Amino acid sequence: MERIETTQTRVCKTWDFRGACSRFATGVTIVTSLRSDGAPVGMTVSSFTSVSLEPPLVLVCLHERCSILQDLVQTGRFGLNILASHQQGLSARFADQVKDRFQGLDWRHGSSGVPLLSDVLATMECDVDRAYSCADHQILIGRVSTMSSHDGAPLVRFSSTYHSLIER
Asked: What is the pTM of this model?
């Protein structure tokens, strides 16, 4: 195991903080919504967690300057697509500055109208329940209205690289 040298300082530098946070393994999701003209939008997000079982609530954090934040807030709903281990390319596509991230992809409109990607481990359709501004991010709490899930291994991000879990 590689040892990372630390220093005793009261200043938390951005890259050091990012490096420390990258040591937390997380699943990879794609958040989707619709623009006002009905075009699908989406982006890769690793800041996702469940909040409550009753009612079913989830949380996503988006940078205040991210391209789809306004669309999510205006429509009041979003889709969550939890990626499988073989979907690294899909994650990269929705993280890059591609103009039409949905071009050539297999996807469908969910019952609420939000775009849902095919062949992912799980999908959730959410209504924005609450939104909070915190520093340079917006924290969105979504109330899950519909969901589906399938068996398979998840795509995992750890130490700024993709990994797969070993099934036992």
From this structure: 0.86
